[in-house]
Amino acid sequence: MNLTNNLTAHDLDPGQLVSSLNGTVKSFAGDRGVIAWEYLTSLVCAVGALTNITILLIILRYPLLRKGAGLFIAHLLVCHLAICAVCLPLAILRIAKVTTPSIGLQDPLVCRHQHVFHATFNTLVNWSEGLLAVNRLVAIFLPLKFPLFNRRPVQCACLCVCWAVTLAYSLPPLYEDLAVYKLSSIGTCAFVAKSAFSTALLSFNAYCPLFLMAMAGVAIVYRANLPRRRFQTTEESNRVSSITPRQAKDNLVQLNSNAKRQKRTTRMLMTSFALSLFCQVPQYISLLAGYSAAHPEIVLCFWFMQLIQFTSTPVIFLKMNKDYQHKAAVFYSCIFRPTQVRPRVNLSLVLRAGRSVKDARENTD
Question: Is residue 316 part of a domain?
């Protein structure tokens, strides 16, 4: 199916604007670069599925890791796993069929049935990171409201809103309403908006999470450079003077523990946001410049950059958070190390020792 030049810079769907600007279609049949991309991407998909499912199992096994932002992190890893294990492998097979003349793609409507999942989970990845950014913003600027935001009903409500906004963008093309998914000459799928409303939904789902991540990063850097407060309010002084030394010590230990955990989480998420922005911002720059529309093969590079992000994010979580490291060590020790067998006890020595103790008592008596 040929794509005409009805895609504009307003149709900002990362990695999907693949038609040529002049209406011509470039053939990629037997292209060695595409074949190399297929094998390399398949390998990284397997690694990404392994890293994400490993950290996800650790989070599901230990309730401590599900506290705070743990629910958003688990949702992010589920979306990563869906893309690495299902969506991208289907895209690789589709591209292989389109670029292999002897096989060819028999179903021209394959994008309608397959790409809806890719678009949905790819957008949910961005929204999950956006919710993590909101989590950090609330923790920094509204610390008194942070326990309320960390409640499970509030987090579930936020996830439901993200799902609703995402499905409002990705489902209409399935029924060719408001937008359509079209197949390109290289096998990728393009989002073609039919109305201004679908374009607005697409832009909102694309830019809002990135804006939240960028704002959270700036806020974290700004807060880190602020001097620590060295005074107390009258209310805080009265509250501190009314507690016992024992309570003060317990509160201090708890506050230090929570502060260290929040610091580790902030540093971990800051690195994750930086990686996400590094992998996604070039896509939007290329789309605004119209380069992706003229060269659809660059879409494969953008997909590979996203795949590197999905594969590396669980490694960042494990590397930069001691809670994850400790639970991962316990998790692997339970799986791969055999159960320690207690050494056999020599009953004759035990009986002999018991008799000697009994004889000694009788001699003393």
Answer: yes
